[in-house]
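Ops channel
N.P.: pipeline sanity check, posting one input/output pair.
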């Protein structure tokens, strides 16, 4: 196919690599709940500490500092949630506050890309699970308090006995391009000057993912898109999203209509400009791209260097 300007369409690009918070961890397993011996697991456990801001202590900025579970006692402590098991070792998460130098505590946004596959998976799960527990203390049906069950992987209502499991909110994120050398980037009103990214939005009730792409792009910048195509996904526990990446094509000749109070600026940018910004350590000609830990970065890099 060709673009509106007659260029040959570049529609087959993929993510340049697996998103950093989606890396496979075949050595980690979730235990069967019907055979779970929490006391035994705790005895061989390691605890990932996470504060209220989603930060955890790191060694040399790239390794989790895990505390032996036995330091907290012989039984799982209140508030502990089971993350995974690797061999004879179990991994737990616990909400806590920094008791060391503050500058050794880092969050997923700043350090997620530095961690290895296992540590990145553990911290992503820990942040998501603990955040869900913070906001699921009351039953949505009867309003009674809920308590942690299944080693923190579920909650049960103390009133109606209803069980609830961690929620994940699907959100689409879409790289809109012209099929050639132009990509559309936008800056949200709450972002600082020069920071741009691809478009994103939450999936609404009764809506397909593709329908969400079309609606959100139309609402945010006033464009109709075609050739909607799935690229990949990434957990984004801020607080509990799953980012579902797509690509779509739009006509750069159509006037942009920005969503008031949501999109401050939107611009079509050339591939060469994107490449410069990807390789820079700061803004390039008024453009600063999303951090490397985000799926948006992987999407832009995949598009910018496709077929090189």
């Amino acid at each position: 196919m060709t673009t509106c300007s007659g260029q040959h369409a570049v529609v087959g690009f993929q993510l340049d690599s697996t998103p950093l918070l989606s890396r496979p961890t075949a050595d980690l397993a979730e235990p069967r709940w019907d055979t779970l011996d929490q006391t035994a697991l705790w005895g061989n456990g390691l605890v990932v500490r996470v504060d209220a801001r989603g930060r955890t202590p790191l060694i040399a900025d790239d390794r989790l500092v895990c505390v032996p579970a036995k330091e907290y006692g012989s039984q799982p402590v209140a508030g502990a949630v089971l993350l995974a098991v690797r061999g004879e070792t179990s991994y737990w998460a616990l909400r806590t506050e920094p008791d060391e130098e503050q500058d050794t505590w880092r969050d997923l946004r700043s350090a997620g890309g530095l961690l290895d596959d296992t540590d990145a998976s553990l911290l992503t799960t820990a942040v998501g699970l603990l955040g869900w527990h913070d906001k699921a203390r009351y039953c949505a049906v009867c309003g009674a308090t809920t308590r942690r069950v299944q080693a923190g992987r579920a909650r049960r209502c103390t009133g109606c006995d209803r069980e609830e499991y961690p929620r994940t909110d699907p959100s689409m994120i879409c790289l809109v391009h012209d099929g050639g050398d132009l990509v559309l980037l936008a800056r949200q009103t709450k972002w600082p000057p020069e920071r741009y990214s691809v478009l994103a939005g939450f999936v609404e009730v009764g809506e397909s993912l593709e329908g969400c792409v079309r609606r959100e792009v139309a609402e945010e910048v006033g464009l109709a898109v075609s050739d909607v195509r799935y690229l990949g996904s990434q957990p984004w526990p801020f607080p509990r999203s799953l980012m579902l990446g797509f690509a779509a094509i739009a006509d750069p000749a159509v006037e942009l209509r920005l969503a008031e109070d949501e999109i401050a600026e939107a611009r079509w940018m050339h591939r060469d400009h994107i490449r410069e910004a990807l390789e820079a350590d700061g803004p390039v000609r008024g453009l600063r791209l999303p951090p490397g830990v985000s799926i948006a970065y992987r999407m832009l890099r995949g598009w910018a260097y496709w077929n090189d």
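N.P.: looks fine end to end. The chain has two domains: 33-135, 169-304.
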